[in-house]
Amino acid sequence: MTEIINDIYEIFPLLLHQFREAIGNSTLLAISVILIFGYIFGKLAEKFKLPIVTGYIIAGIILGESIGKIIELKVVHSLRPITQVALGLIALAIGGEFTQAKMKSLGKKIFVITILQIIFTFFITALFLTIFGLDFKFALILGTIATATAPAATIAIIQGLRARGKFIDYLYGLVALDDAGSVILFAVVFAFVGIFLPQVNGNASAFSMILYSFLEIILSIIIGIAVGYILHKITHKKQNTSEIMIISLGIIFAIISLAHKINISPLITNIVIGATLVNLSVRNQRISQILGKMTPPIYAAFFTIAGTELQLGIFSNPNIIFLGIVFVIARALGKYSGVYMGAAITKVGASSKKYLGFCMLPQAGVSLGLILLIQSSPVIANSTPEIQALAINMVNIVIFSVFVNELVGPVLSKWAIVNGAKLNSYNM
Predict the structure, then answer these.
(1) What is the pLDDT of residues 325-343, one digit of tens each?
(2) Are 21 and 283 in contact (CB under 8 A)?
(3) Choice among 12-26, 36-50, 171-185, 396-410 with the minimum mean pLDDT
(4) Tens digit of each residue's pLDDT (9 = 90 or more) over 262-314
(5) How far apart are CA 184 and CA 296, in angstroms?
(6) d(CA 63, CA 153)
(7) Over the chain, what is the mean pLDDT?
(8) Domains of the chain (ranges plus CATH)?
(9) According to the 3-state scheme, what is the secondary structure of the chain?
(10) Averaged over 355-361, what is the pLDDT?
(11) Residue-wise over 208-243: b if at least 16 C-beta within 10 A, else e?
(12) Per mean pLDDT, which of 47-61, 182-196, 214-228 is the most reliable?
């Protein structure tokens, strides 16, 4: 028996090494492993009454370089198209909720709630980080990044629960407007802070950064409207669902690729496409319904891949852990209090005031994108080594926050959606 155990100990590392090499040489095998592990841990999460999204993320962490080292980062990078497609479909689903009738009843209220929660999150996070020792300029930048929310986890939970009602309508509107507001605030604050960093001529770069950000959003909206109209014209009279799926996917894939090529927001573009479609004709809702049949495996792959990118090594730095905890707590306080205040002012109802803020805690793509943009920015690259070191610390603080919020956020979101949608029928 001892000899058998020893043989297993000797053979297992060799088999694992060969398995890793096979995955590294085969994208299909990597996707297969991701889907199977995602499914297993998704089912385990459901057994423990956790959101299935949390199970996917845990599966990714186990597969990633932090623990199992089964999926290497170079493999993860080769799977970027899956994450892009998932975000595109999620954005399209969000946009499909922006019907003209809903916007008339929700528009001003959602705008007020969004603005207040962004302001509260920005100031509270920046204040807390400054009090606990972070340089004020970098605290301001992290404050803007804290305002961003990951819509993917929330939308996946909504669709999984098949939740409906005004509470859900408010939530759709809030997550859609939040990232656009976050990007604008980030552009303005980062440009302002760049003026005061050493070895940087801030006047031209500040103006150009602000202008570029506004042009990016405007161009995203224009392209979204145009593509939505074209897709409507092509599919409106078609009856065959297979044809509609093929045409829609082809156009959406092309737009996602184009958005990355010309540096516009694929998230905003696809939200606008969805909104344009649903407002041109109610019949266009079938596009989201048809594409919705494809989302389970794409969501499973998306969140499992996201989990593989979370590095546990950041937990070895006490300073990063401390500031990361401050960041997580301050962000949660800002999100909840901002939404609560906005809901109270707009009188949207007891369920929204009590539960909506909990749905804004998940954090991922946009936050990571903004912090990596800072790291690669000429404003930082041309600055002093001390500033560059602080920028690296900022990256680690945000990664820590994403790690925590991607595990805890979906759990709180599911709880809030279940209770908010339930109370909605009585209090709205």
Answers:
(1) 999 999 999 999 999 998 8
(2) no
(3) 12-26
(4) 877 777 788 889 889 888 887 878 887 788 777 788 888 887 887 787 767 77
(5) 32
(6) 20
(7) 78
(8) 2-78 (no CATH), 81-307+314-427 (1.20.1530.20)
(9) CHHHHHHHHHHHHHHHHHHHHHHHHCHHHHHHHHHHHHHHHHHHHHHCCCCHHHHHHHHHHHHCCCCCCCCCHHHHHHCHHHHHHHHHHHHHHHHCCCCHHHHHHHHHHHHHHHHHHHHHHHHHHHHHHHHCCCCHHHHHHHHHHHCCCCHHHHHHHHHHHCCCCHHHHHHHHHHHHHHHHHHHHHHHHHHHHHHCCCCCCHHHHHHHHHHHHHHHHHHHHHHHHHHHHHHHHHHCCCCCHHHHHHHHHHHHHHHHHHHHHCCCCHHHHHHHHHHHHHHHCHHHHHHHHHHHCCHHHHHHHHHHHHHHCCCHHHHHCHHHHHHHHHHHHHHHHHHHHHHHHHHHHHCCCHHHHHHHHHHHCCCCHHHHHHHHHHHHCHHHHCCCHHHHHHHHHHHHHHHHHHHHHHHHHHHHHHHHHHHHHHHHHHHC
(10) 86
(11) ebbeebeebbebbbebbeebbeebbeebeeeeeeee
(12) 214-228
Is the model's pLDDT at 199 over the cut of 60? Answer: no
pLDDT at residue 102 in the model: 67
State in Å, rounded, how far the first CA of the chain is from the last one.
67
Predicted structure pTM score:
0.69
| Angstrom distances, CA of residue 106 to CA of 93, 115, 347 | 18, 14, 11
